[in-house]
Design goal:
By secondary structure, the protein is an all-beta fold. Among the domains are: 1-28 and 88-123 and 186-231 and 253-261; 37-79, no CATH class. It is built from two helices and 26 strands. The protein has helices at residues 30-33, 286-292, and strands at 2-5, 13-23, 42-44, 77-79, 91-104, 107-125, 133-134, 141-143, 153-155, 160-161, 168-170, 173-175, 189-210, 213-226, 254-255, 262-271, 295-304, 308-309, 330-331, 353-354, 369-370, 374-388, 391-400, 416-418, 423-425, 441-449.
Length: 450
């Protein structure tokens, strides 16, 4: 639903507003249904003395059975995947309000607000993780989850923590105190319990083609908040791959992995005033006119702030049983100065963080710092060469990242190495090993238009 209104009746102002509700088709659930029997079940095989005794796998040799009541060792731990059995339709509500003002007959300014609210979106969860509790004991509570006993700790009353529960041995099989001890942490189960919101200010200046020049310049200032952006690894390489806890989902609320705070871009196209009938070389004819006429200059400029980054511990310090890199550290109150160093060797200073108490969730927060910004300029020159009526040859010279500006990729987010009782700062914490764009690239082409 939309409307447009000219408050002055002169044709130089326009107020536009719109609202819409859109639904997702949920046509990508197969990727969560596929890694299950009878298609491609995933199981953790037993390790003896540091190696898998079954490897290499031999023909007609049965794998050990899946662990369960009454099944002795050796057995394997099943790792399921799946999705919410009570799905609701993912929905997004979108709205915007824009004011347009004609500054000249070919120049227009737009200032607008855009917003949206999503609900019932997919969250990536480990549905077999140990649920946290709030310590009620005035003398403190023993925390640590499924961590070894020597890595447990004591937390004060009122702390959200994972109770320390040592593993048990049944029929020679070591089982951890997960809700289902015979099953490993689930492999990214999708539950439709996610929400997201978006708010942005947009300013645009648009010039329609006149005297050979046209351009559009746009600036956006916005923020996306959600609970988890990484339902697949490639969609959130800069944040934890799933929620910290399926019970306390609010722990994950933060800036979305793809949220860019400031973004400026412009593009232009300019027919160079050269050749017969133009401002320069108007009297040219013959081969001279063919040489200097018909040129067009184009360009695209993009500048934006970096993507959010979540510093991560590097191992399961909370003790939930989720073996993916998930937990975040605590902020170090004794650290002085800026956490962001801004160098490719250490984009952030790992000393700005400390190890959280075993069995607790770190307070550094999701998307608490920003990665490298990006600046890029592409440009091109086109030359139109008429051959005969209806047939034109176009010469193109194109340069990408014309200033050869280095745009760094995302840094290594893992702060610590080792385990909860024996750890140290990782030497590669904050290190950037790749760029987000290529070096300067120049290419030439001929295009026949008919």
């Amino acid at each position: 639903m939309g409307l447009a209104w000219d408050p002055t009746g002169t044709g130089t102002w326009a107020v536009r507003a719109a609202f819409g509700i859109h639904n997702d088709l949920l046509d990508n659930l197969g990727i969560r249904a596929q890694p299950n029997p009878p298609f491609a079940a995933r199981e953790a095989l037993p390790v003896t003395n540091g190696f898998l005794p079954l490897l290499p796998l031999k023909k007609n040799v049965a794998l050990p059975p899946t662990c369960g009541p009454g099944i002795p060792a050796p057995c394997s731990i099943y790792q399921p995947a799946g999705f919410d059995p009570n799905l609701f339709t993912p929905t997004i509500q979108m709205w915007d309000l824009t004011v347009e003002r004609q500054l000249a007959k070919d120049l227009m300014l737009q200032v607008g607000y855009a917003g949206s609210q999503s609900y019932h979106t997919n969250l990536n969860m480990d549905t077999n993780s140990i649920p946290p509790e709030v310590c009620q004991n005035p003398q403190g509570c023993r925390s640590g989850g499924i961590l070894p006993a020597n890595q447990a700790a004591t937390v004060p009353q009122g702390t959200l923590y994972i109770p320390s529960r040592p593993p048990v041995v049944v029929n020679g099989v070591t089982l951890f105190q997960r809700p289902n001890p015979y099953v490993a942490n689930s492999q990214g189960t999708w539950f439709g319990q996610g929400t997201a919101s978006y708010h942005a200010l947009n300013v645009s200046l648009l010039k329609r083609a006149s005297r050979g020049l046209m351009f559009k310049t746009n600036y956006s200032w916005g923020k996306v908040l959600d609970l988890n952006s990484a339902i697949l690894a490639v969609s959130g390489e800069n944040e934890p791959p799933s929620t910290y806890s399926p019970v306390y989902r609010h722990l994950n609320k933060g800036v979305a992995a793809y949220s860019i705070e400031h973004q400026f871009n412009t593009n232009f196209s300019y027919q160079l005033p050269l050749g017969s009938g133009q401002r320069f070389g108007s009297g040219a004819g013959g081969w001279l006119n063919h040489l200097i006429g018909g040129w067009q200059w184009n360009g695209i400029v993009n500048a934006q702030t970096g993507f959010p980054i979540t510093p991560m511990v590097g191992f399961n310090s909370s003790g939930t049983g989720n073996n993916t890199v998930l937990d975040v550290p605590d902020g170090n109150p004794n650290f002085k100065g800026s956490v962001i160093s801004g160098t490719p060797e250490h984009w952030f200073d790992p000393r700005g963080y400390k190890m959280p108490v075993a069995g607790t969730f770190g307070n550094a927060g999701r998307s608490s710092i920003r990665g490298p910004a990006l600046f890029n300029v592409d440009t091109s020159l086109f030359k139109r060469i008429p051959i005969r009526e209806g047939v034109t040859l176009q010469f193109r010279a194109e340069a990408f990242n014309v200033f050869n500006h280095t745009n760094f990729g995302l840094p290594n987010q893992v702060v610590f190495q080792g385990n909860t009782s024996n750890y140290s700062y990782s030497s590669s914490a904050g290190e950037i090993t790749q760029t987000a764009t290529t070096s300067r690239q120049i290419q030439f082409a001929l295009k026949l238009i008919f």
